[in-house]
């Protein structure tokens, strides 16, 4: 598995794009010229390494640490010498490509060319599936943790989720991953469809996949985490082929990564490679975990959602007893405040209008306590229609069957009731 060239991959990103991402993470975009932003970003990298060396080390070549576990991921065309691979005791897991988009049609129709292509696709699908399950058996026999990923394509996300689960036949200890190569709905599954994919996987097996993607897409999800409420909380399998990622890491709900794909064909060849896994070709993908082998085995297969970090700006101090406050030995604690949804905001608006204009039955009905909000909205709409009927006609009787809302000419008014 590899990301699209030039997106999220260090070798293809421009210096300007890196500057912009760094400035955004440090909130410098509006206040500093480009040269100053570069200087402050460099200082930020140095400070992050100095202030918190323990956490910063997982963002700077962690594969060089002997206590960091490694995971290999492969697809059907990667050759594997299993006996050599397991000589590297840092290799804890193996993740193999499972399904690719939608499953090919079982019944082939059309002209000779179309039928021939259909049969070839089905044969490839069958061979890939057989190889997948053979590798699964071998890996588990050798004591490796097992995982599967789905290459997300455009197309029905529910059908793709079913294809993934039916292909992989995951056991309770098998990791599942959704591979979104880039935020380009023309080539890959859209993020909106990915939300449905993730939701359906959970419906079927009771747990969530982790999310594999590049830096740019991860940043977009992090910046729009309220819109992508599931994707932004999946454990992140981060693809970036640079020695350091701290200043570029997307943050949001992600305080760290589950796996970091640091080596692939993009930065590994016969002459130079960040890490060589015995028994694998140079184009194999290698990943590092921010934990040791024991911790990774305990965390595997992940499967849950990340907790949403509490932001201080959206928190309030927890009240303390007066006696404790006078004693002066108090540690402030903060409780998160639930963000108001659009529906809550609408309800509050009606309540305020009802308090300001109690004589208006329309607002009063919507603001009435003790009844469900949607029932109050219905009362408001009924009252509004009656008001509009009375508006142009005054006390005149309306003929039965006539809807003045759609048929009457309403005189110009400058204020709605």
Automatic annotation (TrEMBL):
First and last residue of the signal peptide: none
Domain of life: Bacteria
InterPro entries: GH (IPR017853), Glyco_hydro_25 (IPR002053)
Family: Belongs to the glycosyl hydrolase 25 family.
A GO biological process held by the record: cell wall macromolecule catabolic process
PROSITE patterns (alphabetical): GLYCOSYL_HYDROL_F25_2
Designated name of the protein: Muramidase
GO MF annotations, alphabetized: lysozyme activity
Pfam family, one: Glyco_hydro_25
């Amino acid at each position: 598995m590899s990301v699209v060239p030039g997106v999220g991959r260090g070798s293809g990103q421009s210096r300007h794009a890196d500057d912009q991402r760094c400035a955004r993470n440090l909130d410098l975009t509006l206040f500093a010229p480009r040269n100053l932003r570069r200087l402050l970003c460099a200082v930020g990298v140095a400070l992050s390494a100095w202030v918190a060396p323990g956490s910063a080390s997982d963002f700077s070549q962690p594969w060089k640490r002997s206590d960091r576990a490694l995971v290999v991921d492969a697809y059907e065309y990667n050759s594997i010498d299993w006996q050599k691979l397991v000589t590297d005791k840092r290799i804890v897991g193996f993740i193999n490509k499972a399904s690719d988009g939608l499953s090919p049609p079982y019944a082939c129709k059309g002209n000779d060319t179309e039928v021939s292509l259909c049969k070839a696709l089905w044969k490839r699908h069958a061979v890939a599936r057989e190889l997948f399950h053979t590798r699964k058996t071998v890996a588990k026999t050798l004591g490796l943790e097992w995982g599967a990923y789905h290459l997300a394509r455009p197309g029905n996300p529910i059908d793709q989720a079913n294809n993934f689960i039916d292909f992989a036949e995951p056991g309770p200890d098998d990791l599942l991953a959704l591979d979104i190569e880039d935020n380009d709905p023309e080539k890959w599954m859209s993020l909106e469809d990915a939300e449905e994919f993730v939701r359906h996987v959970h419906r079927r097996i009771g747990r969530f996949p982790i999310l594999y993607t590049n830096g740019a897409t991860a940043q977009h999800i992090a910046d729009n985490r309220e819109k992508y409420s599931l994707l932004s909380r999946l454990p992140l399998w981060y693809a970036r082929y640079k020695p350091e990622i701290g200043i570029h890491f997307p943050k949001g709900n992600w305080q760290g990564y589950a796996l970091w794909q640091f080596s692939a064909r993009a930065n590994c060849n016969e002459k130079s490679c960040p890490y060589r896994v015995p028994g694998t070709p140079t184009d194999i993908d290698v990943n590092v975990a921010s934990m040791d082998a024991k911790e990774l085995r305990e965390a595997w297969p992940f499967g849950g959602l990340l907790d949403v970090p509490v932001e201080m700006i959206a928190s309030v101090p927890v009240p303390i007893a007066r006696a404790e406050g006078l004693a002066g030995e108090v540690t402030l604690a903060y409780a998160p405040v639930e963000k108001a949804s659009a529906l809550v905001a609408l309800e509050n608006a009606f309540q305020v209008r009802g308090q300001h204009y109690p004589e208006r039955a329309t607002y009063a009905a919507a603001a009435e306590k003790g009844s469900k909000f949607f029932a109050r909205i219905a009362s408001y709409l009924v009252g509004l229609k009656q008001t509009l009927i009375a508006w142009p006609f005054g006390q005149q009787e309306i003929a039965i069957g006539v809807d003045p809302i759609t048929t009457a000419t309403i005189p110009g008014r400058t204020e709605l009731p």
